[in-house]
């Protein structure tokens, strides 16, 4: 028995750490945390892997605020790069206020606070004070936030290149002007349902943030071609979502067609668009992989023919559901037009 016990201990001491070294890089962090309590050998092997503790994933967890404070008290999290609190429960301003001044997460690059509804402008101020080198911030659907939050962000975090403000309906032109003035290297911006923004503010962002690669303006119907034409100056733009842009016309699309790197373009419910605008897109944006024309009555087979001539080698997804001017086609006919097409949606 003594020999067997010694062999088991040797296996745990020597083999378990080797196995953990191989397995841990592929483990979700939550699974790794569960394994910490399996044995002292697992704990030692996992805790010694610095890569594993660059992410703190508390999304959808209960008592997330207390978990956050407890985790950040541990030495293994001192090189944290990602904190995910998306839909985390019980996270409040007080948790970040307790951390403010106590720690500094100088290597943190991404902070996800999506749908943390109990966070206010004060909480955003405290949270961003912890991470001066933050590059990506997501505050989706924290509906109580105002321009004061953006003031805190631009004051505390100078390196932001990815900003998601989707659903922050109380952020106004003043807030977006701060973004334009402070983040001219911005690469990704999501202003979905930021309903207080006007043409003037959007123009300033598009003029100053010329490095934008992704722009999400889903469900914003108040902008006009006065602003949309400025999108054409974004030479690096690959992703553009204009779903619901009811005032976008063919003139605006002609300007957007200068974005030759576009691969994703959502024009669903852009009801004033016609073949003229889509043909311009086809001719200018020859790398398109996804195009949605959902609900546009002003387009016909003419735009499909133009897309076939210019984008047949790239287009994989095409949505013309509700476009009554475009006729049904068999699978073979579609493949002739678009050899790479894998998803085609058409009206019934």
From TrEMBL:
Residues 53-204, 247-320 form the F-box/LRR-repeat protein 15-like leucin rich repeat domain. SUPFAM superfamilies: RNI-like (SSF52047). Coiled coil: none annotated. This is F-box/LRR-repeat protein 15-like leucin rich repeat domain-containing protein. It comes from the Eukaryota. InterPro entries: FBXL15_LRR, Leu-rich_rpt_Cys-con_subtyp, LRR_dom_sf. Pfam families: DUF7885.
């Amino acid at each position: 028995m003594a020999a067997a016990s010694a062999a088991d201990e040797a296996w745990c001491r020597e083999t378990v750490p080797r196995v953990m070294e191989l397995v841990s890089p592929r483990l979700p962090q939550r699974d790794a945390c569960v394994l910490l309590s399996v044995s002292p050998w697992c704990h030692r092997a996992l805790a010694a892997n610095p890569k594993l503790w660059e992410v703190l994933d508390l999304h959808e967890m209960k008592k997330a605020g207390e978990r956050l404070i407890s985790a950040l008290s541990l030495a293994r999290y001192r090189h944290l790069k990602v904190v995910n609190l998306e839909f985390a429960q019980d996270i409040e301003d007080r948790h970040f206020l307790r951390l403010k001044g106590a720690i500094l997460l100088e290597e943190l690059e991404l902070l996800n606070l999506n749908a943390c509804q109990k966070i206010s402008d004060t909480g955003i101020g405290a949270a961003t004070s912890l991470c001066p080198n933050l590059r990506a911030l997501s505050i989706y659907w924290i509906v109580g936030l105002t321009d004061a939050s953006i003031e805190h962000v631009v004051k505390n975090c100078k390196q932001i290149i990815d900003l998601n403000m989707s659903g922050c309906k109380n952020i106004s032109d003043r807030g977006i002007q701060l973004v334009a003035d402070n983040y001219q290297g911005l690469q990704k911006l999501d202003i979905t349902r930021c309903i207080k923004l006007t043409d003037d503010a959007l123009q300033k962002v598009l003029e100053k943030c010329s490095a934008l690669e992704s722009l999400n303006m889903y469900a914003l119907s108040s902008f006009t071609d006065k602003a949309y034409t400025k999108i054409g100056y974004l030479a690096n733009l690959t992703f553009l979502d204009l779903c619901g842009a009811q005032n976008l016309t063919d003139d605006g699309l002609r300007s957007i067609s200068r974005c030759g790197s576009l691969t994703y373009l959502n024009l669903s419910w852009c009801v004033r668009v016609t073949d003229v605008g889509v043909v311009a897109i086809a001719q200018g944006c020859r790398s398109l992989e996804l195009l949605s024309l959902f609900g546009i009555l002003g387009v016909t087979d003419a735009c499909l023919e133009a897309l076939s001539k210019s984008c047949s080698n790239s287009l994989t997804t095409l949505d013309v559901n509700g476009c009554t001017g475009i006729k049904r086609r068999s699978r073979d006919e579609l493949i002739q037009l678009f050899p790479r097409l894998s998803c085609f949606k058409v009206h019934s």
